[in-house]
Specification:
Layout lengths: L1 H22 L1 H6 L2 H4 L1 H18 L1 E6 L9 E5 L17 E6 L8 H7 L3 E3 L6 H15 L3 E3 L18 H9 L3 E5 L16 E7 L9 H26 L7 H15 L1
Parallel strand pairs: 1-7, 2-5, 2-6, 3-4, 3-5
Antiparallel strand pairs: 6-7
Pathway: Lipid metabolism
Protein name: 1-acyl-sn-glycerol-3-phosphate acyltransferase
Keywords: Acyltransferase, Membrane, Transferase, Transmembrane, Transmembrane helix
């Protein structure tokens, strides 16, 4: 049953993306940019509905009161395709720094460009990165929310932390709050796999880390806060979803955490 539901969900997920991009293009490209963003937000909501009705996966968001007004950096854990779009309905005017190849995808790339997302060559250095930061500062000056995944790429639930120091440099240069977000969607939508698993999990938005810390202190603070809550959520999610198949990284971390509790 899980296999059939996963196939159905994956089919409808991509069909939903393609159909909405095509059918809603007239409004998207003619409306003011910020108003047009209601289309990606509603697309995210429709995906949540599909996942609940077809797969049986639900989630709750806690800590919305921690989201500051104006510009800030959102720093979520990154485990799945799910977390690339899931929080869009709760964000005012988000912006991503993304690999430039995504801009070359027909229709999708046009949608991305319409929202003034910031493309970058992953191997870029020097003047190119200076230009990226100048562009980012300009967007942030308009009160936008920059979404950065501190570990850079998707990591399996419970894996050893692998934070990139780049977020500390961006924090220093932009001088805005950073809002960490802990969650474990990778238990239900695993990376590089087509299976989707039913159950319920929480997304926790943590209190913002204020600007002004030196980069090293910020970096250590971010890791400490985010990993502490991630460990708590891992235990809670696994205990509340008996029978959920765990990837090796999550099973290993659960053993470590339960041993610490018993010690």
């Amino acid at each position: 049953m899980i296999i059939l539901r996963s196939i159905l969900f994956n089919t409808l997920f991509y069909a939903n993306l393609i159909l909405q991009m095509i059918l809603l293009s007239p409004y998207y490209f003619l409306a003011p940019r910020k108003k047009a963003f209601v289309i990606p937000k509603n697309w995210a909501r429709s995906n949540h509905w599909l996942m609940e009705k077809i797969v049986g996966t639900t989630f709750t968001v806690e800590g919305l009161e921690n989201i500051p007004k104006g510009g800030y950096i959102l720093a979520p854990k990154h485990q799945s395709l799910w977390d690339t779009y899931a929080l869009l309905p709760w964000l005012d005017d988000p912006v991503y720094i993304l690999k430039r190849e995504l801009m070359w995808i027909p229709i999708f790339g046009w949608y991305v460009a319409r929202q003034k997302m910031i493309p970058v060559d992953r191997g870029a250095k020097g003047k190119v990165m200076v230009g990226v930061m100048e562009r980012t500062k300009k967007e942030m000056a308009d009160g936008r929310q920059l979404i950065i995944y501190p570990e850079g790429t998707r990591r399996p639930p419970g894996a050893e932390p692998a934070y990139k120091y780049g977020i500390a440099r961006i924090y220093r240069d932009l001088e805005v709050p950073v809002v960490p977000v802990a969650m474990h969607p990778g238990l239900f939508w695993p990376r590089r796999k087509f299976l989707r698993f039913p159950g319920h999990f929480k997304v926790k938005i943590l209190p913002p880390i204020a600007p002004g810390l030196d980069p090293d202190t910020f970096y250590e603070t971010l890791i400490e806060k985010l990993e502490w809550v991630s460990d708590e959520l891992l235990i809670e999610t696994v205990e509340n979803n008996p029978g959920l198949p765990l990837p090796p990284s999550a099973a290993k971390r659960m053993k470590e955490l339960l041993a610490e509790k018993d010690a």
